[in-house]
Amino acid sequence: MADHKDNIDDFKVQTAKHLNHSSAPLRPHSEHSKDRASKRLSTESNGTSDGGVGSSTPVELTALEESFRRFAIHGDTRATGKEMHGKNWSKLCKDCGVIDGKNITLTDVDIVFSKVKKKSCRTITFDEFKAALGELARKKYKEKSGDDAEAEVFKLIEGKAPVIAGVTRAVASPTVSRLTDTSKFTGSHKERFDETGRGKGKAGRVDVVDTSGYVSGYKHRGTYEKKVNKPGEGRPV
């Protein structure tokens, strides 16, 4: 009997503990949402995200890096903007005025590109891009210090985008005019256009059979019907 009483007392104690844990007030759903939002903001400010510790978050690009990406993807739909090949590197230096034909030439640009890129690669990264600009800056602005020269070259590139050439205009020439003047066409080509030079379409390409009953070349077609059916004339009684 004593053992049975002890078991009952233990059961009462465990039940009371369970009730104390479950009696804690539930937090509203809005408070949980606030906690999640504050956690996300704190992790983003620390350079991490919910994906894991140390994972990168989107950061605002500098004007120089934005120009780098614009030129990196120019003319290549598969480019990611993280690497730039030699052709677009040369275009950037030309469009942004880095090449002046005196201190910096196209040859200098190609040499620096080959110098900063990895041997097994055909492209340069953004860090290698800045290193290449530093090489050109010291040669372009010899009278300035290294940092000041780089700053001047960066200003030439920041905010710039590739220059797209305009559409080539057709040049009028006597030969082209003669070939496109429909009034001078002969033979079957002449039959494809009317007096105004407008194409006749299918009627100018296919022989249409005339089933009106008139002979070919007859110029008074339809005049008989007009004479017979004159308006205002009554029939004879």
TrEMBL record:
- Positions of region (Disordered): 1-58
Which Pfam family, an example, fits this chain? p25-alpha
- Gene3D superfamilies (alphabetical): EF-hand (1.10.238.10)
> What's a Gene Ontology MF term here?
tubulin binding
Q: What superkingdom does the record give?
A: Eukaryota
Locations listed in the record: Cytoplasm
Q: What keywords appear on the UniProt entry?
A: Cytoplasm
The terms describing its cellular component in GO are: cytoplasm; microtubule
| Gene Ontology biological process terms, A to Z | microtubule bundle formation; microtubule polymerization; positive regulation of protein polymerization
Which residue intervals are annotated with compositional bias (Basic and acidic residues) in the record? 1-12, 28-42
Q: Give the UniProt family note.
A: Belongs to the TPPP family.
What PANTHER family does its record include? P25 ALPHA-RELATED, TUBULIN POLYMERIZATION-PROMOTING PROTEIN
Q: What is this protein called?
A: Tubulin polymerization promoting protein
Organism of origin is Kryptolebias marmoratus
